[in-house]
Specification:
The chain is mainly α. It contains 7 helices and no strands. Helix 2 crosses helix 3 and helix 3 runs parallel beside helix 5.
């Protein structure tokens, strides 16, 4: 059966299920906001424990990454993401999930070739881009400081 691209696009558009866009946006907003509110609660809890604020600023992201990694390992994060969609992609939790998920998928290949090698298949390019961008930014910042 030969059909042109336009006809095929019309066929697919007619057959594809409609996405509940409003519901998806609302769930993403609520879940993303709940994750951020939870992080704020952890921040306040650490402050109540009389930990220095500068240390708390480091502890909160570490705690959130740990909890997101734990939730990924227990299978909870993927279940939440299935219903909450983009709300779970609050940068630090989504990044944690992107690092842990491939490692779990390939753990049968061993610690080095499975977990170690596959851990950064998704997050690796993000890390490389971030490091290179920060180096370029640093050089530009230094050059502007030298010229001033």
């Amino acid at each position: 059966m030969n059909i042109d691209k336009q006809t095929y696009k019309k066929y697919v558009k007619k057959r594809a299920p409609r996405s509940p866009l409003l519901k998806d946006m609302l769930l993403a907003f609520l879940v993303g906001g709940a994750i951020c509110a939870f992080a704020e609660g952890i921040y306040n809890l650490y402050l109540l424990l009389k930990i220095e604020e500068e240390t708390v600023r480091t502890l909160v992201p570490v705690t959130i990454v740990f909890l997101a990694s734990l939730a990924t390992g227990l299978g909870f994060f993927d279940s939440l993401a299935k219903h909450a969609g983009a709300g779970t992609l609050v940068p630090i939790t989504g990044f944690s999930n992107a690092v842990i998920s491939p490692a779990l998928d390939d753990k049968s290949e061993g610690l080095v070739m499975g977990v170690g090698a596959k851990m950064f298949t998704i997050a690796g390019p993000v890390i490389v881009y971030g490091v290179i961008s920060s180096v370029i930014y640093g050089v530009i910042y230094w050059l502007l400081g030298v010229m001033a």
